[in-house]
Design a protein that fits this description.
Layout: H1 15-56
Amino acid sequence: MTLDAVGQIKEVFTLVDFYQYIKGVEYLICVAFFIGFPMFYRYLHKREQETKEAARH
C-alpha cells in the first residue's frame, strides 16, 4: 500500500486485498487515537487544575 492510495476507494478483488485495505485504515485510526487521546487528556486535566487554582484564591 502506498501513501497515494490513502483515502481512495478502490475495487477489491480478493480477500487479501480487502484485509490489506482494512489494515491500512485500521492503522490510520490507531495513529489518530494515539495523537488525539493525550491532547484530550491534557485538555480535561488543564481545566481541572484551573478550577482548583481558582478555588484556592
